[in-house]
């Protein structure tokens, strides 16, 4: 019965959730709410909302201390000091910058400048390993865990397979970007598991710079190698030149899949998948619950991304290719179609 | 009232018939009711399932449950399609009604018992009752596999009874007619079947009376039983005579003195 | 037609019962089923519409995005989970505007396309069109792409679906009708016997005596029906005759005492002597009412009592299983087996004691005493909340069962002294068997429809009814307790029976395994296995009833065979082998219902074949003991020994389950039974032509 009163009390406050700063659930008599210090970088957005909603929905009493750096890196040192002074139960860090500044590198955090004794969860860090927040995704080996927001490659491949089974996957990449190499290695390994071959073609490099003009030829090369899909990785060079790449793919009659939102929504990639921030926030809160309620060590909680993702289908491109999505996938997807009639 | 043999047999038969009819009727009715309510339930489960699927697809797109404004229209559309649906509600795991075809109740709370089926986390639809309405619902599960709330569909609990009521009345009428017919038939048939017994008993009684009191010679019996009986009659007659003669003789001897 | 024999009259009346019960019930059932089917149709239509709308909505969305209807992708994967989740839908199809089938799941397109091509699909409005195609009910809904109709979605319902769903009702009705006929038979037998043939049989005895001049008895009659009137007429005649005789004797006494002439006195004495020589009148001053006990008197009560116990036969282990959660550290299978085993143990222990008690207090009182624990046991079983109290109540019920059945046996064995013994035994066996068929089958239906616990309440009510019947009908017929029974020798003498190797072999290797198979397999493994395979209790009961049915069919043939061949030991051996082999069916046929049917049938054949020869063997094998101890004692002891098998059966089966699984346990039990049967078969060959004597009349 007690628990139900609590849930009721929490939910009553939940109605006012539109104004997140006010959303500080009332402590329950006899049991103190968990105090969570939320360090944000670009204000209150979906991830923070998902984080907060999770506690409300699960009936876990929390007091959220919300601080927004407003994209000002210099404020973060103050946040660290404040969190330590308040002796909060948990720290939540949003984004790579905040996480790096507040939690420090995994191998040598500075107890004076970083949060070390208080358990922390991070969110919206695209490359936690690359950013040296954690040594690997299995364990942080310290008082930290968190979430990534990139759809795991395996999930991406399964998604492409569900659109149409394929045996050759094409990819055009920037050889100067080290991340591309990692993606190629991982995809090659996955190909052995899932029985497909990766056809990865680097763009031409001139004067130490990748040449966007070479993209259409490379796409044609991939197509000629028998690729059924073109894989578009989340990569800066590609993102900048997305129109050239996706346009070339469409021209070549090669369906394209993007692991980012822009190529699909604002360009001509045929379909794509990303993790939305709201479920990332929920998943981060889920890890916080494991630390606070179930008293698990953060080092024991692996870092991962939400299992399900937002799938987007660019319908004009689909029609132009005449390469239609299966019914079930269509049902699950967000369809981008400016001329949509239904 | 004399309980003749045929009446006893008829009553026994009709008693058995009545109890058998009541039993088969009750069993058949229960079975039918359960099949029909399964059917109604499965139809509404399907409707609820389609709503659940649409909500969960949107949850998977990374939207908060309470932010899914289109769900209100979806629920209203489904309700408009079936006049028997009293309402469709979506509530979250804090019992707060987020969407309801009856917009007035949005923001109110569902009974705490409505949360119980959610903890089971099954994919099977659950059933609830609420005053005079029956509910069928499904939990809403987010991408973390956690229950965010539930969608329930409300339909009149008396729906089945209304449907069945007319049907039962009609059947009850036939029931009564058949029972009555069987009663008449069994009385007549039993009486006819026992006629032989009755006639022979009467015949034997006559033989007894004739033979013992009037001394008429008994007709030979038709079977061993009647043969025995005729011998008995003869013996009884003989005994009556013997005793009579003996009495006469004693009287004669008594007077002699 | 013989007036003092129930048979022909009963046949006629039973024919009437069949007519009066089966005809109206069949008519009504079929009518009701028709109504039910009609009642279901609108519901199915609505569901078809709901599914059709959903499918049409999703496909229309795809078409709206510009996907041509014939180039939809993944329709199979889209349709198949819907077909799977909704078994009443037989197919889903998408056709183009002219009715060509573009996609279909569930049936072959050739079955439907001709119909779609010829139908006018333009007429399909937004609510769809329903049409009947062969066995299917087809609902067509339009697919729209923008404003144009791009094709149709078809939802196909199985028209027989409702009939299939409701077919259980017919099975229930059939079971209830058959049970009712069995009950009707028992009640008619009772009515005819109590009202017609019983009194007339008695009358015939009396008439026979009177035919030889014995006028000591008069028939009694309390009823006012035709038979009663006739009996009263006979009674009147006899009373009149008796009156005349008394008058004569009074006169004679008067003359004797009052007359002075010795010669006259002597002559009068001669007259009186002559009459007394020719005829016998009651010495007590008035004719005595003639009373006699017959085995049939108690048959209905026995039937009802056994019927009550049989109601829970098909689900007893399942009921125990549901309560089993309250016992930690005991394997669930054993927990399910224990109530059966302990019920049997209670019967085994209580029966010999009840037998002695019957001689002391008389069968009527013993039955009434036994009804008390049986009623309480059943009621408390219905209310039991855990394993331990369930076992307690079942044990109590077992005691009651032992007392009531022993009371009936005792009553019958006393009643049939004037009758033939085999007939008496026949009455007992027939009542138990018919109760077994009807009770088990009906119990399954009751349990399925109103629940397991209420079924035990029904049992309790039936037991009370049986007790009331006994209390009312046998009130005047009970013998004075403590008849001239020689005190039989004690149990130690009985144990000496075991030194007779022929007896011991018969018991241990034929009687015990037979009971083990019955309780371990039929009573325990069959309900548990079938229930695990998802069968309902009513269906389980219907399958279990095969056993007594087969037995009823086989027994008379076996008896004839035994009489013809005189090869009793061999028959027992063959029966045992059949039963053992039958239990091995799961090895060949898997654990499905077919193998269970085969095993149960084999068990029925086995027991039908060996049960009566096994009984008849006893006096052959141990005639000296029978002479010394009495047939009843030997028989009682053999019953006790074989009941040990009844106790062991479920426990053994339960211990096998964790080792080898359900089918393995059946086969394991089969191996045990079969190997024992083989031992018996070999040993019985050595019985040779040992000492034989004719079956003696029970000296007790």
Automatic annotation (TrEMBL), chain A:
Signal sequence bounds: none
Pfam families, A to Z: ABC_sub_bind
Superkingdom field: Bacteria
Name assigned to this protein: ABC transporter substrate-binding protein
Automatic annotation (TrEMBL), chain B:
Name this polypeptide is given: Uncharacterized protein
Transmembrane segments: 175-194
Species this protein is from: Magnetospirillum aberrantis SpK
Top-rank taxon: Bacteria
Keyword set, alphabetical order: Membrane, Transmembrane, Transmembrane helix
Lineage: Bacteria, Pseudomonadati, Pseudomonadota, Alphaproteobacteria, Rhodospirillales
UniProtKB/TrEMBL annotation, chain C:
Protein name per Swiss-Prot or TrEMBL: MFS transporter
GO molecular function, one term: transmembrane transporter activity
Organism: Magnetospirillum aberrantis SpK
Subcellular location, record wording: Cell membrane
Domain named HAMP: residues: 194-246
Keywords associated with the record: Cell membrane, Membrane, Transmembrane, Transmembrane helix
InterPro entries listed in its UniProt record: HAMP_dom, MFS, MFS_dom, MFS_Efflux_Transporters, MFS_trans_sf
One GO cellular component, as annotated: plasma membrane
Membrane topology: Multi-pass membrane protein
KW Methyltransferase (keyword) present: no
Primary location recorded for the protein, binned into one broad class: membrane
Gene3D superfamilies on file: 6.10.340.10, MFS general substrate transporter like domains
Entry keyword annotation includes Lipid biosynthesis: no
Major facilitator superfamily (MFS) profile domain ranges (all copies): 294-686
Ranges annotated as spanning the membrane: 169-194, 300-320, 332-354, 366-385, 391-413, 425-446, 452-470, 503-528, 540-559, 571-590, 596-619, 640-660, 666-687
Segments forming a coiled coil: none
GO terms for biological process, alphabetical: signal transduction
């Amino acid at each position: 019965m007690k628990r139900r009163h609590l849930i009721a009390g929490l939910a009553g406050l939940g109605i006012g959730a539109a104004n997140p700063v006010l959303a500080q659930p009332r402590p329950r008599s006899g049991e103190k709410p968990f105090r969570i210090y939320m360090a944000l970088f670009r204000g209150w957005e979906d991830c923070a909302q998902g984080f907060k909603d999770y506690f409300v929905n699960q009936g876990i009493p929390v007091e959220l201390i919300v601080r927004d750096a407003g994209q000002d890196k210099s404020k973060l040192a103050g946040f660290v000091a404040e969190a330590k002074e308040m002796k909060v139960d948990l720290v939540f860090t949003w984004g790579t910058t905040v996480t790096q500044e507040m939690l420090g590198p995994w191998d040598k955090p500075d107890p004076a400048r970083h949060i070390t004794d208080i358990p922390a969860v991070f969110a919206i860090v695209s490359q936690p390993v690359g950013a040296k927040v954690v040594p690997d995704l299995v364990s942080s080996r310290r008082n930290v865990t968190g979430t990534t927001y990139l759809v795991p490659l395996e999930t991406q491949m399964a998604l492409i397979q569900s659109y149409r089974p394929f045996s050759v996957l094409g990819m055009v990449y920037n050889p100067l970007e080290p991340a591309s190499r990692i993606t190629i290695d991982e995809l090659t390994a996955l190909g052995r598991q899932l029985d497909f071959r990766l056809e990865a073609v680097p763009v031409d490099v001139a004067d130490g710079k990748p040449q966007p003009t070479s993209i259409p030829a490379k796409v044609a090369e991939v197509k000629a190698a028998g690729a059924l899909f073109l894989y578009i990785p989340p990569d800066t060079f590609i993102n900048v030149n997305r129109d050239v790449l996706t346009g070339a793919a469409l021209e070549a009659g090669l369906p394209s899949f993007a692991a980012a939102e822009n190529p699909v929504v604002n360009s001509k990639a045929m379909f794509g998948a990303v993790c939305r921030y709201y479920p990332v926030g929920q998943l981060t809160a889920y890890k916080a619950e494991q630390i606070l309620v179930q008293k698990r060590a953060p080092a024991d909680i692996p870092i991962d991304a939400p299992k399900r993702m937002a799938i987007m289908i660019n319908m004009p491109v689909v029609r132009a290719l005449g390469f239609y999505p299966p019914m079930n996938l269509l049902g699950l997807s967000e369809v981008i179609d400016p001329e949509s009639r239904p | 009232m004399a309980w003749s043999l045929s009446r006893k047999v008829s009553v026994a038969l009709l008693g058995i018939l009545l109890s058998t009819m009541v039993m088969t009727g009750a069993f058949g009715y229960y079975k039918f009711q359960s099949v029909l309510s399964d059917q109604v339930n499965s139809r509404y489960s399907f409707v609820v399932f389609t709503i659940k699927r649409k909500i969960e697809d949107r949850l998977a797109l990374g939207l908060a449950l309470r932010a899914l404004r289109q769900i209100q229209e979806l629920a209203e559309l489904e309700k408009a399609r079936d006049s028997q649906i009293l309402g469709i509600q979506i509530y979250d795991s804090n019992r707060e009604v987020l969407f309801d075809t009856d917009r007035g109740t949005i923001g109110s709370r569902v009974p705490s018992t409505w949360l119980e089926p959610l903890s089971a986390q099954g994919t099977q639809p659950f059933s609830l009752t609420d005053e005079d309405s029956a509910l069928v619902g499904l939990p809403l599960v987010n991408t973390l596999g956690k229950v965010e709330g539930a969608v329930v569909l409300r339909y009149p609990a008396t729906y089945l009874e209304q449907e069945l009521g007319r049907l039962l009345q009609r059947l009850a009428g036939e029931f009564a007619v058949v029972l009555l017919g069987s009663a008449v038939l069994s009385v007549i048939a039993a009486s006819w079947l026992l006629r032989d017994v009755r006639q022979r008993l009467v015949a034997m009684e006559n033989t007894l009376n004739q033979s013992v009191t009037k001394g008429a010679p008994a007709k030979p019996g038709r079977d061993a039983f009647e043969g025995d009986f005729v011998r008995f009659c003869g013996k009884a007659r003989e005994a009556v005579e013997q005793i009579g003669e003996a009495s006469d003789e004693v009287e004669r001897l008594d007077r002699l003195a | 037609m013989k007036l003092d024999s129930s048979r022909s009259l009963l046949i006629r009346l039973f024919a009437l019962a069949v007519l009066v019960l089966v005809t109206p019930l069949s008519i009504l059932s079929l009518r009701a089923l028709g109504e039910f089917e009609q009642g279901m149709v609108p519901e199915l239509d609505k569901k078809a519409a709901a599914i059709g709308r959903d499918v049409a909505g999703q496909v229309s969305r795809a078409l709206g995005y510009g996907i041509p209807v014939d180039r939809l992708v993944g329709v199979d994967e889209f349709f198949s989970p819907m077909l799977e989740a909704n078994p009443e839908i037989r197919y889903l199809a998408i056709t183009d505007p002219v009715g060509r089938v573009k996609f279909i799941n569930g049936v072959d397109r050739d079955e439907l396309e001709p119909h779609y091509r010829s139908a006018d699909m333009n007429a399909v409005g937004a609510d769809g069109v329903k049409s009947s195609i062969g066995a299917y009910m087809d609902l067509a809904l339009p697919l729209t792409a923008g404003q144009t109709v791009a094709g149709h979605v078809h939802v196909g319902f199985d028209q027989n679906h409702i009939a299939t769903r409701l077919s259980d009702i017919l099975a229930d009705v059939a079971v209830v009708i058959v049970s009712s006929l069995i009950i009707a038979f028992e009640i008619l037998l009772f009515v005819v016997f109590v009202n017609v043939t019983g009194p007339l049989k008695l009358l015939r005895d009396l008439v026979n005596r009177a035919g030889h001049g014995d006028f000591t008895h008069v028939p009694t009659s309390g009823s006012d029906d035709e038979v009663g009137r006739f009996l009263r007429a006979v009674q009147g005649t006899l009373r009149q005759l008796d009156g005349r005789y008394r008058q004569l004797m009074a006169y004679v006494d008067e003359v004797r005492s009052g007359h002075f002439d010795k010669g006259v006195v002597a002559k009068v004495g001669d007259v009186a002597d002559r009459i007394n020589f020719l005829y016998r009148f009651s010495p007590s001053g008035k004719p005595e009412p003639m009373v006699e006990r017959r085995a049939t008197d108690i048959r209905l009560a026995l039937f009802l009592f056994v019927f009550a116990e049989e109601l829970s036969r098909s689900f007893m282990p399942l009921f125990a299983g549901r309560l089993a959660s309250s016992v930690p550290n005991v394997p669930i299978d054993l927990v399910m087996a224990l109530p059966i085993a302990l019920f049997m143990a209670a019967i085994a222990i209580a029966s010999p004691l009840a037998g002695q008690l019957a001689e002391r207090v008389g069968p009527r009182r013993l039955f009434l005493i036994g009804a008390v624990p049986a009623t309480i046991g059943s009621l408390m079983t219905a209310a039991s909340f855990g394993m331990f109290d369930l076992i307690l109540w079942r044990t109590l019920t077992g005691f009651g069962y032992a007392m009531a059945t022993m009371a009936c046996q005792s009553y019958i064995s006393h009643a049939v002294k004037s009758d033939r013994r085999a007939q008496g035994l026949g009455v007992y066996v027939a009542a138990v068997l018919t109760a077994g068929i009807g009770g088990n089958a009906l119990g399954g239906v009751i349990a399925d429809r109103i629940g397991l616990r209420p079924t035990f309440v029904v049992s309790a009510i039936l037991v009370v009814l049986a007790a009331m019947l006994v209390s009312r009908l046998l009130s005047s017929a009970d013998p004075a307790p403590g008849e001239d029974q020689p005190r039989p020798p004690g149990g130690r003498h009985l144990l000496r029976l075991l030194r007779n190797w022929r007896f011991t072999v018969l018991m241990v290797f034929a009687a015990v395994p037979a009971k083990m198979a019955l309780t371990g397999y039929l009573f325990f493994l069959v309900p548990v296995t079938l229930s695990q395979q998802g069968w309902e209790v009513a269906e389980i009961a219907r399958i279990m009833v095969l056993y007594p049915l087969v037995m009823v069919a086989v027994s008379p043939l076996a008896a004839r065979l035994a009489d013809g061949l005189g090869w009793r030991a061999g028959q027992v051996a063959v029966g045992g082998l059949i039963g053992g082999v039958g239990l091995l069916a799961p090895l060949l046929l898997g654990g499905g219902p077919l193998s269970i049917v085969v095993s149960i049938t084999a068990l029925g054949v086995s027991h039908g074949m060996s049960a009566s020869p096994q009984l008849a063997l006893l006096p052959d094998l141990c005639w000296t003991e029978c002479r010394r101890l009495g047939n009843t004692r030997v028989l009682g002891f053999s019953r006790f020994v074989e009941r040990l098998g009844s106790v062991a059966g479920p426990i053994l089966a339960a211990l096998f389950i964790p080792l080898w699984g359900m089918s393995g346990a059946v086969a394991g039990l089969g191996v045990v039974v079969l190997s024992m049967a083989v031992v018996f078969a070999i040993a019985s060959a050595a019985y040779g032509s040992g000492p034989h004597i004719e079956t003696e009349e029970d000296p007790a």
